[in-house]
Design a protein that fits this description.
34% of the residues lie in helices and 23% in strands. The protein is α/β, with parallel strands linked by helices.
Length: 337
């Protein structure tokens, strides 16, 4: 088995603003595994929030390359991968490429390999970042086909943003604060306002270290509160089960498809609701995550829809619904220029 990788740059359709950062472009690492005339693709979407970067991904891949050999099985390689410390976005890229390669050899779509279905209607939310009233209205017009919207909050204009949206549409909203509400009393005030605005859930309203305050916030609302930054990997589930109503699982946070699959099953046992989310990614990362979509309650897989130079095709989005492709592996192909 041979491994190679390349760095790519993805450009956003709009400047993407959250409570934490503003960005116009992101750098990602595409991993390719080749064996017996087949190849598998994976994508690393490192986040500074988790102390990862393109450089940490490349360093990990260089070390991983020294450990693999030609005759290693999928399970042996996965076991070795997960025994290595940290670097979850890099692990995710290798994990995705391994599963893509393995299921291409078996001539099976990855969802079928896991015994899942492609028939479930999968409505993804579409994300609108923090912005001016004029730009939000423009983004809402662009998002007209989506049945659910994900709204970034965590700034001084949170109420104004919701008022702008509600003048335009009554669609269900999912709120993502990205740890942006630093004060509990202010958070309670904002969440009370949101109660009557058709809100499906709120992601990570408070900083990750404010777990006690998060429970106090939960007592003030009927809106489910989901952990994002507080729930990165499998080990975090036991901690968050007493503080949140649900979790957001992302392949680049948890280390890939294998770990996400396990997290979903344990989260079900713990009675946690589950969202399958993403970073800003190409169709490789989005198509990989979509293979598990039939297992979860909510889908937020729009990262490839927020960019204007996706180098790959994969899972199809039509009228806000994701449709898995009945092709071997994760179903992605590079767009020929």
């Amino acid at each position: 088995m041979n491994i190679s990788w390349e760095e790519i740059e993805l450009y956003l359709r709009h400047t993407f603003v959250t409570a934490r950062e503003s960005k116009k472009n992101v750098k990602r690492v595409i991993v390719k595994l080749e064996d017996d005339g087949f190849y598998g693709l994976g994508e690393a979407a490192p986040s500074p929030r988790y102390s990862e970067s393109v450089e940490t991904v490349k360093n990990f891949l260089n070390e991983f390359n020294k450990l693999i050999s030609e005759n290693m099985s999928l399970y042996t390689t996965l076991q070795m991968l997960n025994n290595l410390n940290g670097n979850y976005s890099a692990k995710s890229a290798v994990d995705i490429a391994l599963y893509d390669l393995h299921t291409k050899k078996l001539n099976l779509p990855l969802w079928q390999y896991f015994g899942l279905t492609s028939d479930k209607i999968i409505n993804t939310s579409f994300t609108i970042g923090i912005d001016t009233t004029e730009n939000i209205e423009r983004k809402l017009d662009e998002a007209h086909e989506f049945k659910v919207l994900k709204i970034k909050l965590g700034c001084e204009d949170d109420i104004k943003i919701i008022q702008t949206i509600r003048r335009y549409t009554d669609k269900p909203l999912r709120i993502d604060v990205n740890e942006g509400w630093k004060n509990l009393n202010k958070a309670i005030e904002l969440i009370k306002y949101l109660e009557d605005n058709n809100i499906e859930l709120i992601e990570q309203p408070l900083p990750s270290e404010m777990l006690y305050e998060n429970n106090r916030l939960r007592e003030q609302t009927t809106i489910p509160i989901f952990a994002d930054e507080n729930c990165k990997t499998f080990e975090d589930l036991i901690l968050v089960k007493d503080y949140f109503d649900g979790i957001n699982i992302k392949l680049s946070k948890c280390g890939g498809i294998f770990n996400a699959y396990l997290m979903i099953q344990v989260a079900r046992y713990l009675n946690l609701k589950i969202m399958l989310g993403c970073m800003i990614e190409s169709s490789i990362g989005i198509s990989a995550a979509a293979q598990l979509a039939s297992m979860v309650d909510y889908i937020d897989l729009d990262g490839n829809l927020l960019i204007n130079n996706d180098p790959y095709t994969g899972v199809i989005c039509k009228e806000g619904e994701l449709k898995l492709i009945n092709e071997p592996g994760i179903g992605v192909m590079k767009i020929e220029k």
